[in-house]
Amino acid sequence: MTGAPTPPPATRPRRSRPRTVLPLAVAAWLVLEIWLLTVVADAAGGFTVFLLLIAGIVLGSVVIKRAGRRAFRNLNEALQRGTAPSSGGGSGLTMLGGLLLILPGPISDAAGLLLLVPPVQRALGRYAERAVDRKLRHAAPGGLGDAFQQARMYHPGGKVVQGEVVRDEPGDAPREQRPHLNR
After folding, report:
1. Which of 45, 57, 90, 182 could be disulfide-bonded to 121 (CB atoms 3.0-4.6 Å)?
2. Tens of pLDDT along 32-57?
3. Residues 6+ away with beta carbon under 8 Å from 183
4. What are 126-137's pLDDT values in tens digits?
């Protein structure tokens, strides 16, 4: 002992509820998927389960490929028109449905097939849109809620200055003749 005071033990920050529950939920989901696959294999046979798994992979791949092509086509058309791409169409939810079809297991297959039904897609899309709007409305100032509302310029010294974009128009005076821009 040198007589030096010992530092207090470091306290770990408390984990949030989703970070605690999510691993347990994923583990429970995997156990349930495996158990249901064994039940189906006992009832219908192992070869039938194998064919179901292969069919899910093929169908999920086709769904993801078609949804990706549709999303790319919509983006291309919007860029040609010079407008913002539309968020409608449910390409993201369709891709999620395809991904769930690719994952082995009857629960993920049922959820994936459910996401391919247009009324379910519309309902989930509206719900997700409302949830994102609510999150952005209640976000802390300077956080994600203000991310698209503010323009910032970063100076070499690291100082952040609120600013706006100034574009030269054809009829404007040359830059050298505008004293407020020559600093």
Report:
1. 90
2. 999 999 999 999 999 999 999 999 99
3. none
4. 898 888 788 777
Mean pLDDT of 7-22: 76
The answer, yes or no, to whether residue 150 has pLDDT greater than 50, is: no
Helices assigned H by DSSP within 82-152: 91-102, 106-115, 118-137
How far is Cα 32 from Cα 36, in angstroms, rounded to an integer?
6
- The closest alpha carbon to 165, from 155, 149, 151, belongs to 151
Instruction: Name the burial class of residue 31, with classes exposed (0-12), middle (13-18) and buried (19+) by CB atoms within 10 angstroms of its CB.
Output: exposed
What tokens appear for 13 in the block?
Answer: 């920050």
Is-contact 93 115, C-beta < 8 A? Answer: yes
Tokens standing for 91?
Answer: 């390409």
What's the pTM value of the predicted model, to 2 decimals?
Answer: 0.63
- Would you list the domain boundaries of the chain? 31-139
| Helix 106-115 and helix 17-44, axial crossing angle in degrees, nearest 10 | 110
157: which residues sit within 8 A by CB, 6+ positions away?
A: none
Single-letter residue type at 77: E
The confidence score (pLDDT) of residue 14 equals 76
Query: Please, are residues 153 and 183 in contact by the beta-carbon 8 Å criterion?
Result: no
Distance CA 92, CA 125 (A): 9
Q: Pick the closest to residue 85 from 72, 75, 71, 70 (CA basis).
A: 75
